[in-house]
């Protein structure tokens, strides 16, 4: 009788398989949920991103208003340091109050607040004062005035702070060359913002408004012209270097209408060619 021992066959047999791991159903469920939530949060983040400029459509109707002349402007002085934005000298001058009343009456004639409206002024003194005048004339409750604390600050002009208003023409010459050129800096806390810097701010503002409201009327009140010209250029798809073409006078009111875009004239030099307005450098 042939006897086969375990020792004689062990070298030729494959090793035993490893023991099966217990499947943890709870772990699998949590993993699946985490992956699902990641996908959802990613899509939500995309949906809540910055408004694309120019936007394909707007959920609300908008009126842009430049506050009336400030005391500083009546003195012919550039003042853009945010430290002074709530000071008395940043408030409306006597002429600026009249300009703001005219703006309020113009908004009323345009029917801006017939079905109520939201008024978003910069917290800068003259803007908020203008907003109060607009609310009074149009019968809007003060609870519909929403002060904006940073996105609507006057454009910081750096080393031009304290100079005569005429000096701002030098800034606009640089703007026409590139939207990324900043005014020279200064060490008193005044920002030195390029057109592109302001464009980011006003795009953030519009993103908030388009998310927060739907089929409403919003009146944006800015202390200066540049916030509004850069915003309007972005909304209508105009080369940002040409924002000055849309200049607002103190107390001016403008309804946002994509049909109001000026005819685009491509600069003769290829150096300044803009292929993707409003983002042109």
Brief rundown of the structure:
Residues 1-21 are annotated as: Disordered. This protein has 281 residues and is α/β, with parallel strands linked by helices. It has helices at residues 6-9, 25-47, 71-74, 94-109, 125-137, 168-175, 195-212, 226-236; strands spanning 61-66, 118-121, 217-222, 253-255.
Low-confidence stretches: 1-12, 19-48, 264-272
Rg, nearest Å: 30 Å
Helix content: 25-40%
What strand line-up does the widest sheet have? Answer: 2-3-1-4
| Element-by-element helix/strand order | HHEHHEHHHEHE
Give me the number of helical elements: 8
Region (Disordered): 1-21
InterPro entries: His_Pase_superF_clade-1, His_PPase_superfam
Protein name: Phosphoglycerate mutase
Pfam families: His_Phos_1 (PF00300)
Question: What would you say this structure looks like, in words?
Answer:
The chain has 281 residues and is α/β, with parallel strands linked by helices. Helix content is 35%, strand content 7%. The chain has a four-stranded mixed β-sheet with strand order 2-3-1-4, with helices on one face. Helix 4 (94-109) crosses helix 5 (125-137) and helix 7 (195-212) packs across helix 8 (226-236).
């Amino acid at each position: 009788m042939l006897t086969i021992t375990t020792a004689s066959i062990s070298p030729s047999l494959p090793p035993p398989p490893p023991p099966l791991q217990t499947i943890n159903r709870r772990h699998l469920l949590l993993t699946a949920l985490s992956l699902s939530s990641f996908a959802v949060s990613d899509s939500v983040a995309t949906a809540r991103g910055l408004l694309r400029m120019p936007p394909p459509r707007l959920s609300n109707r908008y009126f842009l208003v430049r506050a009336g002349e400030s005391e500083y402007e009546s003195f012919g002085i550039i003042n853009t340091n945010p430290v002074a934005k709530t000071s008395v000298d940043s408030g409306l001058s006597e002429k600026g109050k009249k300009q703001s009343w005219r703006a309020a009456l113009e908004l009323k004639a345009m029917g801006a607040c017939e079905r109520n409206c939201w008024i978003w002024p910069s917290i800068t003194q003259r803007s908020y004062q203008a907003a109060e005048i607009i609310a009074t004339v149009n019968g809007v409750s003060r609870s519909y005035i929403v002060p904006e604390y940073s996105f609507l600050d006057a454009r910081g002009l750096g080393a031009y702070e304290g100079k005569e208003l005429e000096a701002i023409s030098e800034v606009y010459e640089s703007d026409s060359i590139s939207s990324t050129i900043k005014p020279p800096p200064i060490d008193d806390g005044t920002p030195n913002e390029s057109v592109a810097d302001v464009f980011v701010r006003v795009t953030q503002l519009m993103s908030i408004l388009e998310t927060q409201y739907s089929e409403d009327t919003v009146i944006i009140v800015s202390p200066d012209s540049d916030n509004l010209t850069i915003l309007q250029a972005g909304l209508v798809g105009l080369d940002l270097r040409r924002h000055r073409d849309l200049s607002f006078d103190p107390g001016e009111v403008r309804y946002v209408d994509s049909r109001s875009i000026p005819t685009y004239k491509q600069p003769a030099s290829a150096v300044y060619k803009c292929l993707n307005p409003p983002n042109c450098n």
